[in-house]
Backbone:
């Protein structure tokens, strides 16, 4: 399956196993602009899989209401770049509902799915990675899968998690990533990072599509005798601090890479925390190889993105510090 | 007979001089008497006199009186409508093939079919008025004084583009022409338009702002916020809904409880107009402008149609039938309508119009060729114009030591 089929499969499973779950968003009825919701309406009916008008704030607000009645609301925002009108609803309503009502109400059933990330020609408004904005909000979870099999497990876990989750799907991988995905109903644990590749010289932390690039850099670095440990964070908040810390204690070096601009990106949080915890163990400053501090450009996309070579250079610089 | 032929030739020469746009300024707005002195017109024996045309489709008014269906126009104006719309049509079709041959990448939303809206609007506006719209902006940019070269270069991401190649298809602007873009996020431009109108009112500019959006965007909350503010403060803004009946792939009746977008302003008066008829659009905008300058906001809904899909990634035929598209093309095409009018009023002959068409085609081809030669922007432009020059922010290379760039 590729990524969109895996997501489709996960949604199918979610709708099948819980009669009080709903999938809605712009154009989800016919299958969605990335075909993630193909066939759902035919199987589960128009009352459970339905289109919404073009209003992100309305979609999320509506989802929050639905979730607070104990339903599983899976809202789709067509592109993560359009999530901002809904930002108020997510931050002020979804994240704080349980807290401010003293646990009387909650929006745990809400899952917001949005395709994010660079795609080669997306330009300013079809390529953004807004995960950092949401990582700053206690009360929600941010989950980002790296592959089809991961996506299915993580999405099912997110839908069933009793907290509101913002689930970003790397749109670059929708068709490109192909993998064997089990047809079973399985979930993967949230707030648990995964070591993709073991190593001893430097720890690399990333998520989503960026991991593919990082893996290539690791393979290249291995040719120079540098043994890299690659970690997929999977859940950004609350993130698996223990695993990353243990890894850095082993290797002594850390590199974080993400497409979002470097200043204020989530890499900053990881870097700050690891510095606090592993200061004396660190052999080199923590490196962040991220997008530049510019709006996501049109023709300059290859310069903006954290490419394999930039990561490779940073690995070497850290190891030779 | 000979005399008639002579007359035709002379007027033809006069036509090509008047209506063909100079490559430098290319302002494709209809010409006024100040450009061609009355005497010269009369000497040429030229049908430049004013005439009145009745538009067939009645206006539907909401909380206001509809204007008359008799539109004052002139032969020159009709000819310039024809030439301008034809040029826009050729431009969009050229953009289509550029996209397919990968000169244009990313997103490209074409306006063909909807030309009458922007051309008719321009006929009742001047440079003191402001326009702001969504992403289907190539033709509106032309109407506000942009050039074909600027549009093609911007589409291909080249230096000679109106936004220096950094904006692309969705972000075309023209400061002198009062065109504020070109906006990617649906509906976000509507409160902006209210702000522009506030500035105009405060500075006593005697202009209006036309803030344009589509039927899809008509369901965005910020539109209603903008309408409320505009009505409260009596701002001279005209909310223009270009209703092409499909918000991407969703038909209007599937996304709106009330697809009567001209009534959605509720307390804001509105009018529904046949958007495929240049003259009706002109009349409506003229009326709306008067209203807006006197009484505050106004909503105009233009019933229009796009032949292409939502963007170049959309074939446009999965949610509507090919018969529907060809039906509209046959019966309501804006260019054909003006052509029939010109021919029936004997303002121009078939060969006159063919000449204008050929001119338009060659202008488009020329601009296209020139745009293809334009270079891509300098890599330093990646860092320019984020903040105001001189801010002095730094961007680092991978190791944070060797490569440090000071943002201009």
Residues:
């Amino acid at each position: 399956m590729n990524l969109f089929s895996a997501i489709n499969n996960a949604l199918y499973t979610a709708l099948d196993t819980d009669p009080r779950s709903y999938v809605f968003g712009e154009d989800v009825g016919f299958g969605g602009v990335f075909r993630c919701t193909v066939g759902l309406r035919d199987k589960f009916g128009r009352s459970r899989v339905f289109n919404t008008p073009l209003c992100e704030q309305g979609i999320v607000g509506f989802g929050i209401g639905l979730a607070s009645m104990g339903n599983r609301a899976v809202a789709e925002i067509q592109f993560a770049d359009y999530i901002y009108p809904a930002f108020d609803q997510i931050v002020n309503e979804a994240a704080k509902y349980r807290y401010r009502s003293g646990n009387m109400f909650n929006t745990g059933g809400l899952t917001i799915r949005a395709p994010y990330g660079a795609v080669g020609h997306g330009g300013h408004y079809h390529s953004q990675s807004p995960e950092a904005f949401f990582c700053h909000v206690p009360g929600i979870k941010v989950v980002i899968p790296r592959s089809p099999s991961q996506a299915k497990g993580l999405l099912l876990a997110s839908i069933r998690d009793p907290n509101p989750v913002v689930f970003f799907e790397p749109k670059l991988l929708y068709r490109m990533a192909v993998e064997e995905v089990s047809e079973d109903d399985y979930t993967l644990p949230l707030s648990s990072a995964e070591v993709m590749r073991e190593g001893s010289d430097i720890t690399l932390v990333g998520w989503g599509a960026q991991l593919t690039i990082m893996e290539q850099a690791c393979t290249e670095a291995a040719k120079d005798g540098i043994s890299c440990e690659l970690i997929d964070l999977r859940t950004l908040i609350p993130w698996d601090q223990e695993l990353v810390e243990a890894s850095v204690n082993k290797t002594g070096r850390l590199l974080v890479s993400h497409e979002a601009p470097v200043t204020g990106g989530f890499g900053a949080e990881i870097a700050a925390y690891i510095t606090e915890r592993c200061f004396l163990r660190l052999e080199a400053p923590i490196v962040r190889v991220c997008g530049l501090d510019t709006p996501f450009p049109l023709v300059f996309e290859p310069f903006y993105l954290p490419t394999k070579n930039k990561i490779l250079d940073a690995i070497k610089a850290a190891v030779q510090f | 007979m000979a005399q008639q032929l002579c007359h035709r030739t002379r007027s033809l020469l006069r036509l090509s001089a008047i209506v063909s746009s100079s490559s430098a300024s290319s302002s494709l707005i209809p010409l006024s008497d100040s450009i061609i002195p009355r005497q010269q017109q009369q000497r040429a024996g030229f049908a430049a006199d004013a005439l009145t045309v009745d538009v067939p489709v009645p206006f539907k008014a909401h909380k206001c009186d509809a204007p008359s269906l008799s539109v004052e126009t002139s032969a020159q104006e009709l000819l310039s409508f024809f030439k301008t719309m034809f040029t826009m049509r050729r431009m969009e079709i050229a953009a289509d093939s550029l996209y397919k041959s990968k000169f244009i990448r990313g997103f490209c939303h074409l306006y063909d079919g909807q030309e009458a809206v922007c051309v008719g609007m321009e006929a009742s506006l001047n440079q003191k008025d402001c326009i702001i719209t969504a992403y289907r902006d190539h033709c509106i940019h032309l109407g506000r004084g942009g050039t074909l070269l600027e549009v093609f270069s911007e589409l291909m991401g080249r230096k000679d583009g109106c936004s220096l190649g950094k904006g692309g298809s969705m972000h075309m602007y023209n400061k002198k022409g009062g065109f504020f873009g070109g906006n990617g996020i649906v509906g976000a431009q509507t409160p902006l338009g209210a702000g522009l109108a506030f500035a105009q009112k405060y500075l006593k500019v005697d202009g209006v702002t036309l803030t344009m959006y589509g039927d899809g965007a008509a369901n965005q909350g910020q539109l209603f916020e903008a309408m409320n503010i505009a009505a409260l403060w009596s701002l001279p803004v005209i909310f223009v809904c270009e209703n092409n009946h499909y918000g991407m792939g969703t038909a209007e009746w599937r996304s709106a409880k009330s697809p009567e977008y001209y009534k959605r302003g509720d307390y804001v008066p509105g009018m529904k107009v046949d958007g495929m008829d240049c003259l009706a659009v002109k009349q409506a905008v003229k009326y709306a402008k008067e209203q807006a300058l006197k009484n505050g906001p106004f909503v105009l809904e233009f019933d229009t149609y796009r032949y292409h899909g939502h963007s170049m990634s959309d074939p446009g035929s999965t949610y509507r039938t090919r018969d529907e598209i060809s039906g509209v093309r046959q019966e309501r095409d804006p260019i054909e309508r003006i052509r029939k009018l010109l021919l029936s009023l004997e303002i121009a002959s078939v060969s006159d119009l063919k000449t204008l068409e050929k001119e338009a085609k060659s202008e488009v081809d020329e601009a296209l060729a020139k745009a293809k030669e334009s270079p891509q922007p300098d890599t330093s432009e990646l860092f320019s114009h984020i903040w105001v020059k001189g801010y002095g922010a730094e961007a680092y290379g991978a190791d944070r030591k060797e490569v440090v760039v000071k943002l201009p």
